[in-house]
Backbone:
């Protein structure tokens, strides 16, 4: 038995190197996402049972619908009013929790050709109407 | 013999017994009853999700309560009692001692689980099994949430008492002629998980008290308006429950180590690496808790640290899998039900393991987090690996418990329904998660792909349901009417079976 144990260590070495590679790629990817581009537009997002409120930089507020322009970079500043929610636009892989007492930020670049209507939803359980805590994202040219 | 139907003992003799096999039997029966109850809730959930909108459950409130009780039941009333049951049966036998170290404490630990279970099932809380504040402290309806808190508190205490008992039995009562490095790997797995329980559970126990005083309004630990922080609860919770994932998994790993060499008719490939992997994992398991919280707004450094901690746990699981495969390699494998379930469990372990790596890979977590992908991922582990190996091990222990043999034909039917169903339902859940379907929803967007995937998942769940119906029918029928088993070697694999003379209770 003993002499074959070397195969196990070779295999463990292979698994470890694979994981190091995956981890390094993930770290690098996250690092790229971490820095918000300079020319962003800030949208303040508030989640509460069970709807979303959006505030544009000019003070204009929207409830349940968010109008954005294609080709622009947006930074969302997200907070929760009552319980924890999670702000999620599945199509653009935007996702971060809306936590009362904290402001979380996440940014997205809307592609030029993304004009259309998309789903905004809550992804953290927040009570009775969690399933229906949705909003519309309308991307305009 | 424990349930000797031919020579029955009065029920009270089993109920008030402190003998380890009797307490074990109570644990096992309790866990199987709750597996069936939790499974019925799961089928209700899947039926509701068969179509968008109302299918059978009229409102989201009931649905939220059902998935909360389903999760709590499966984790604390199926997996943990089953581990205690098998541990109670086998640890004294495998360390060659007459009973557990503290037989009465052992019975107390079991009987504490009963009011705990009653509180959870009578309360019917809607907090989810994680009970994140502020929802659980400010909005969740009482008394359900309070009963849930007390139920878990009692179950946690019961786990701690059980863990102390196992540690003392293994370390202090082990036969002097049996060195630790020759003790069964199943005993190692119970030792390691008991130590993890002692280290991990007090944190959650504290968090439950904080949750309760917050609910009473006398404190504001998790209330930002009173200077608290809801995220603090998540740290306390996951500091207990990420190690708890390994507390669920490692006994199953230990059971696989009991079964695979016997049914492959070969010695374990490397006993030493099994021990090393157990001990290392029990330490590294404490370094990854916040990977459940990557989307709560952790800093970049925190995220990096917990990603590394999580990836560091993977090689240990890989070592176990290698060990199993190398043991099976070139063996004369007997494909009886226990072995089928173990092999099925190992196959599904690959998917859950790979899914776990995806979840911790930072940018990808934001795609999978809190979607059905995660539901598919942890069910693939808890159902596909842990429960599969548990059910296989129950088949292996069946002659020990009943003195009878189960029907291999029905066990085969059970296996194939459960295996195909599990693969179907949880693979479909992974995919529907990638389409962005959030977890814990009573209704979903009526998109044709999402509907189709949910229906595939529901069909898979029904297949599991059929398999489980066969399973329970088999257990009841064969423990009453099964053929008497050959107690030296019931599976015909040339191994000496567990010391069956143990079956005579002696006090």
Residues:
């Amino acid at each position: 038995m003993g002499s074959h144990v070397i195969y196990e260590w070779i295999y463990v070495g292979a698994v470890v190197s694979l994981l190091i590679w995956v981890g390094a790629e993930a770290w690098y990817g996250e690092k790229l996402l971490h820095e918000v581009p300079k020319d962003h537009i800030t949208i303040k997002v508030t989640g509460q049972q069970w709807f979303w409120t959006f505030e544009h930089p000019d003070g204009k507020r929207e409830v349940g619908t968010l109008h954005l322009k294609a080709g622009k970079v947006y930074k969302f500043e997200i907070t929760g009013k009552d319980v924890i929610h999670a702000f999620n636009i599945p199509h653009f892989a935007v996702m971060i929790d809306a936590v009362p007492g904290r402001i979380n930020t996440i940014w997205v670049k809307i592609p030029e050709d993304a004009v259309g209507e998309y789903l905004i939803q809550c992804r953290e359980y927040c009570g009775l109407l969690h399933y229906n805590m949705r909003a519309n994202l309308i991307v305009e040219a | 013999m424990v349930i000797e139907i031919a020579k029955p003992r009065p029920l009270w003799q089993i109920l008030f017994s402190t003998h380890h096999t009797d307490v074990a039997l109570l644990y096992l029966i309790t866990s199987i009853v709750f597996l069936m109850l939790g499974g019925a809730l799961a089928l209700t959930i899947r039926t509701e999700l068969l179509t968008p909108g109302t299918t059978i459950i009229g409102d989201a409130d009931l649905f939220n309560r059902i998935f909360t009780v389903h999760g709590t039941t499966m984790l604390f009333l199926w997996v943990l009692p089953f581990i205690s049951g098998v541990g109670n049966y086998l640890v004294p036998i495998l360390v060659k001692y007459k009973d557990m170290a503290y037989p009465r404490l052992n019975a107390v630990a079991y009987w504490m689980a009963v009011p705990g279970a009653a509180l959870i099932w009578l309360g019917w809380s809607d907090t989810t099994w994680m009970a994140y504040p502020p929802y659980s402290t400010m909005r969740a309806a009482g008394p359900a949430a309070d009963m849930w808190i007390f139920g878990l508190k009692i179950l946690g205490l019961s786990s701690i008492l059980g863990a102390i008992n196992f540690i003392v039995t293994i370390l202090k009562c082990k036969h002097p002629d049996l060195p630790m490095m020759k003790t069964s790997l199943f005993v190692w797995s119970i030792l390691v998980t008991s130590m993890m329980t002692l280290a991990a559970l007090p944190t959650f126990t504290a968090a439950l008290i904080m949750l309760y005083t917050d609910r009473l309004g006398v404190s504001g630990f998790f209330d930002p308006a009173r200077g608290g922080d809801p995220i603090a609860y998540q740290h306390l919770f996951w500091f207990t429950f990420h190690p708890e994932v390994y507390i669920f998994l490692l006994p199953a790993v230990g059971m696989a180590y009991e079964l695979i060499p016997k049914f492959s008719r070969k010695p374990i490939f490397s006993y030493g690496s099994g021990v090393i992997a157990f001990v290392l994992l029990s330490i590294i398991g404490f370094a990854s808790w916040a990977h459940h919280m990557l989307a709560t707004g952790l800093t970049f450094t925190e995220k990096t640290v917990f990603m590394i901690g999580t990836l560091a746990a993977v090689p240990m699981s890989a070592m176990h899998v290698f060990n199993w495969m190398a043991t099976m390699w070139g063996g004369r494998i007997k494909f009886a039900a226990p072995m089928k379930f173990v092999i099925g469990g190992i196959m599904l372990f690959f998917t859950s393991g790979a899914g776990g790596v995806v979840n911790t890979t930072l940018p990808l977590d934001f795609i999978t987090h809190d979607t059905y992908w995660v539901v598919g991922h942890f069910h693939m582990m808890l159902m596909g690996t842990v429960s599969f190996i548990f059910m296989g091990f129950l088949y292996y222990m069946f002659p020990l418990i009943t003195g009878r043999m189960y029907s291999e034909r029905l066990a085969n039917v059970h296996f194939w329904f459960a295996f195909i169903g599990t693969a179907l339902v949880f693979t479909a859940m992974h995919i529907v998660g990638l389409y962005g379907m959030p977890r814990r929803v009573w209704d979903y967007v009526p998109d044709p792909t999402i509907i189709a995937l949910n229906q595939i998942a529901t069909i898979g769940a029904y297949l599991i349901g059929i398999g489980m119906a066969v399973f329970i029918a088999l257990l009841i029928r064969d423990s009453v009417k099964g053929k008497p088993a050959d107690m030296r070697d019931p599976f015909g694999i040339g191994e000496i079976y567990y010391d069956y003379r143990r079956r005579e209770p002696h006090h």
User: Anything to note?
Assistant: Chain B touches chain A through 61 residues (CB under 8 Å).
